[in-house]
Amino acid sequence: MKIAIHAEKGSFSDRWISYCERENVSYKIVNCYQSDIVSQLKDCDGLMWHWTLNDYKSVLFAKQLFMSLEIRGIKLFPDVLTSWQYDDKLGQKYLFESINAPSIKTYVFYTKEEALKWVQTATFPKVLKLRGGSSSVNVNLVKSKDKAALLVSQAFGKGFHTINRVNRLKDRIWAFNRDKSFSSFYKVIKGIARIFLPNEIEHFSNNEKGYIYFQDFIESNSYDTRLFVIGKKCFGFRRFCRKGDFRASGSGLWDPNPEYINIESVQIAFSVAKTIDSPSIAFDFILDGKEPKIIEISYCFPQSAPDCCMGYWDDQLNWHKEKINAEEFMIQDFLAKCSSTSLSVGYN
User: Fold this and answer.
1) How far apart are CA 124 and CA 113, in angstroms?
2) How do strand 291-298 and strand 280-288 relate by DSSP bridges?
3) 306 touches 228 (CB < 8 A)
4) Is 315 helix (H, G, I), strand (E, B) or coil?
5) Nearest Cα to 218, choosing from 272, 285, 120, 148?
6) Is residue 314 a contact partner of residue 270, using CB atoms and an 8 Å limit?
């Protein structure tokens, strides 16, 4: 058995490759951006590629490539069922509703007339989101009908920039005031430069328009809970909101103590992961009263995020205290999946 890994510094692939070398797993490095990627995989049973929304190129074709490879019979990480709704809040809305997952009520409109009609009867505040974005990018609290109506007009007019450079700079300044580190200072300098010089992602991105997405605002939440389910393991931490901000994602204020994590959230995370047959999935939960509700999901996450976790729950909700290496959990499960099936040669 041999697997292919798309290597990219700073991604999951760093630890995947280290694991293969340490455990003598047969692997080869491939480049998914090359036109002959399908030919590169002819002697491989599976492909692992940590593709993200931070590279406009992967957003263009990763899902299409993976669908094509899955038809051929090549095992994939992430597989198609796991990745199709990645960075797609519209897709996640319909997914949660179709499987009856406990999630925050969401409202989506595809015409200006229907959206404005809804605004007149809705109660506010509501949370406005764009289809894509991470770390609370493109997430705003809308406090009045008048503001909502203006945003509806913008959504069906010029649209919204996918990256708000000013808000991103404010977040980096806040992080520097929190950490007082050279790394956070360097990010502030880069943020200032980005005000005047858009990066590659912005250069090739289009404005988001033609729809508008609102989500109910659940008050009295000073934190959310980020849970990761990989195979039969679940681990996570609480993330606290910044002062004067309703958003917890991107704050960097974490508490990994499992005693304070709502165990019902863990049960829901396992159940949803099993229902959609996902080998790797990260959940964001908040409490609606005492009931955990899913905000959104993602197959991937910042590489070092789970390192602070103090252990994991198994699918019987037993707690295991041990060091977490999410990427090793991923590749162990993936190798087991590859070894249990044989590669189809496709159409000849």
Assistant:
1) 19
2) antiparallel
3) yes
4) coil
5) 285
6) no
Kindly state the tokens that stand for 304: 């070092």
Q: Per the confidence metrics, is the pTM higher than 0.90?
A: no
Residue 222 has what DSSP assignment?
Answer: S
Contact 248, 225 (CB under 8 A): no
Does an H or E element contain 275, and which? helix 263-275
Kindly state the tokens that stand for 215: 């989500």
Mean pLDDT of 197-221: 83
pLDDT digits (tens, 9 = 90+) for 42-85: 999 999 999 998 788 998 899 999 999 999 999 999 999 899 99
Which among 316, 273, 275, 262 is positioned nearest to 298, based on CA atoms? Answer: 273
3-state secondary structure 121-157: HCCCCEEEECCCCCCCCCEEEECCHHHHHHHHHHHCC
Residue 291 pairs in a beta bridge with 288
Query: Rounded to an integer, what distance in angstroms lies between the CA atom of residue 27 and that of residue 314?
Result: 29
Closest to 233 in 3D by CA, of 297, 312, 303: 312
- With beta carbons less than 8 A apart as the criterion, state whether 86 and 299 touch: yes
Q: How confident is the model at residue 343 (pLDDT cuts 50, 70, 90)?
A: very low
CA atoms within 13 A on the CB side of 166: 1
The 10s digit of each residue's pLDDT in 238-280 is: 998 877 667 667 666 789 999 999 999 999 999 999 999 999 9
Residue 107, strand partner residues:
214
Which candidate, 38, 64, 40, 35, places its Cα nearest to that of 51?
Answer: 64
